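Hi R.,

Here's the input for the NDP complex you asked about:
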Amino acid sequence: MNASLSEARPSPAAALRTRAHKFGGSSLADAGRIRHVADLLLAADEPGQVAVVSAMQGVTNALIALAGSAAGGRDWRPDWQALRQRHADAARELVGDRERGDALQAWLQAQFDQLASLLQAVAVLGTPGQAAHERIQGLGEVWSARLLCSHLRERGAEHALLDARDVLVVRPGELGVAVDWPRSAANLARWRETHPQARVVATGFIASGEDGLPTVLGRNGSDYSGAIFAALFDADELHIWTDVDGVLSADPRLVPEAVPLPALSYREACELAYFGAKVIHPQTMTPAIARGLPILIRNSFRPEHPGTRIDAAGGAGGPVKGLTLNAGLALVSLEGAGLIGVPGTAERVFAALHAARISVVMISQGSSEHSICCVVRDYEAAAAGTALARAFEREIAAGQVQGVQQVAGISVLAAVGDGMAGKPGVAARLFGALARARVNVRAIAQGASERNISVAVAAEDATRALRAAHAAFWLSAQTVALAVIGPGKVGAALLDQLQAAKPRLQREAGLDLRLRALADSRRLWLGEHGADGDWRAQLEGAAPGDLDALAAHLLGAHLPHAVIVDCSASDAVADRYAGWLAAGIHVITPNKHGVAGPLPRRQAIDAACLAGDARLRYEATVGAGLPVIQTLRDLLDTGDELIAVEGILSGTLAWLFNRYDGRQPFSALVREAHALGYTEPDPRDDLSGTDVARKLVILAREAGRALSLDQVQVESLVPAAMRHGSREQFMAGLDGLDGPMQARFEQARARGEVLRYVARLGQDGQARVALVALPADHAFAHLRLTDNIVQFTTWRYRDNPLIVQGPGAGPEVTAAGVFSDLLRLAAALGARL
Ligand SMILES: NC(=O)C1=CN([C@@H]2O[C@H](COP(=O)(O)OP(=O)(O)OC[C@H]3O[C@@H](n4cnc5c(N)ncnc54)[C@H](OP(=O)(O)O)[C@@H]3O)[C@@H](O)[C@H]2O)C=CC1
Ligand SMILES: N[C@@H](CC=O)C(=O)O
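And here is the predicted structure with NDP in place:
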């Protein structure tokens, strides 16, 4: 009786090439769905076919409820009637032929009459009893199989109807129901003598016990029946039809980007199923595994989709095929010097937990043997703690073990894939992704098969951890939750560039930049799935809100990475950088107030970066899209020393003095520069030299010099009378600039010189920004438009300074500089850039 499946002899009809199909309840929910199943079966080009069916959706539960009602003395007749009507209606729709239809209705009526008699008996006894309960539960499959078979016959197909109770013999086993293969195979062979048809419809879920009484296969029983009949009919493949495109790489409710997996090995499928992925149950697979039968998980709503193939080979793919998350767990650990080098500690832990009937989800022990920890279901944690405390009572009393520690709110993330075995770097990639997503790992386990790495993390980090790991193994794009503050000239250009580049970045770099928040000084827009459409329209309808809500919303997405891009010129916004960075939000900005602001603020920002993993990038603060800061950093990082910096650091001032020839009013050019988006929001910041001074401060600080804005000698081009008042008042009185500027210009021209606004940071530490008259052949006299020029004199470049030159202002180039920072950050976070 213990004969295994491989010993079972195939039925005489096994010479046929046969494919087995299994349809679940949702595929048979009503007449329309049953008709669709028939379409699939009739369209399949296969000589032999076995279709194993579940009950119509919800029918098994309805039958169990009927038995419960009858046993509890409640009136079961209305529900019985509804169930009868549902099947009678389906039968009417499925079988139009009068004679066949009447026969089917009469058969159904007889079935329901028998059910009614059973329920009456249950009501009298006050309990269904095991035998009646199993008989009642399994009726749904008998009815659905008959409906499908009758419909197929109506359409001219000669399918035989196999009631599994006539063939399949099972007995209770330790891990559930076990099949008596020799008896079942012999029964099938006998049945085939009178049912030689190539195509068969069989009932799932039900079978006969060794005593010949009807029984059921338990949870996932219909899938199990599919595999059993596939084996008994010696099928070439088993197709399990569901309502999804196959096995997904992760739970789509937690990772919306989860993808269907084309192929899995049996072992991968078992590992994923164990950790809760929506794969078929491992027990279901045993008959298939035993004979190397491929299982295909397919979508009955999209039969053209190939689905997931599960077989011995498992197909190609990355090292990790899928990820699962098990929630509702707790960590229970023992720690103490009394465990070191003591043989039998693990055995005592397991024995104590076994005696308390507690199943261990994961176990981990450091090689120092100083501690050992287990992950158990949270509702069993207290009992596990008590069991361990009792088992180690002596050591705890002697102070050799520091009691039992329990941590609730734990989830286990498991990465599964045959390709992990023998491949260096997989764990590094997983842990690197978790670190970058700021997820703390509480415990780790990897079996010697190297097919599964499991990590225990805090429940609140679990979704972020899953998404980060999913992206790290290229199962989906690296997803970055993005907020843009200040959609003014630069911000708007950036948003347009982001929108245009998004599809290509997703496709080619595996980077999903998801805009979740937008704010200007008056409005805050928060979105769930990213502003993929018209961001302007979204902001248009937004209400006022504060930046705390913006940061909370960004973090609330549980996306692996969060970035705020500050495109304002606001000091108040810059004041928040340190807090955001400390909270793990990366910051990117062209706004100089943060990095050139008061030293204590800058120090707080730097400290937040050092303490955590969040990064601040601000390349566009100097030279807009030019690589000025990066160049200086590269020089310093490779061991060079900065001696001096000199240059033209203002695009606005460069443009003004490149254009100004004394013929048109200087004020007209300032208005034009403002309209072109070169100036700061308030052009006085440019004309006063403050903007240039800030840039010099940024470069000095980059070189490690603690320079403050008030230490820079600044020559302002704004007459004292125009320094106060609103921006609008200043713009209205702009022609007040014209007289003094004309005079400076004429003086310089008389000497054959040109005017340029130059910044200089000397070796002596002196910082100065001023309008100077330069000889007409000076390098700074030959720039074009908004060109900046920055000359770095360093120890290596002491005879011939290193020069960075190019356009240094304008919304498009500045936005591109900000975007480059974002992409460099994304690359560091793991995007394929
Ligand atoms: N233009 C250029 O060539 C370059 C600019 N930069 C820097 O880029 C930044 C933006 O410049 P630009 O686009 O020209 O400026 P704009 O004036 O066009 O845009 C500023 C944006 O910031 C918003 N804003 C202001 N205060 C706040 C606040 N407290 N909270 C939220 N949003 C706020 C404004 O909103 P609202 O409309 O409601 O006021 C507006 O959307 C500046 O810091 C500038 O120094 C850097 C390099 C080059
Ligand atoms: N207004 C600034 C813009 C860049 O920082 C400039 O003109 O350089």
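One thing worth noting: The radius of gyration is 37 Å.

Cheers,
M.
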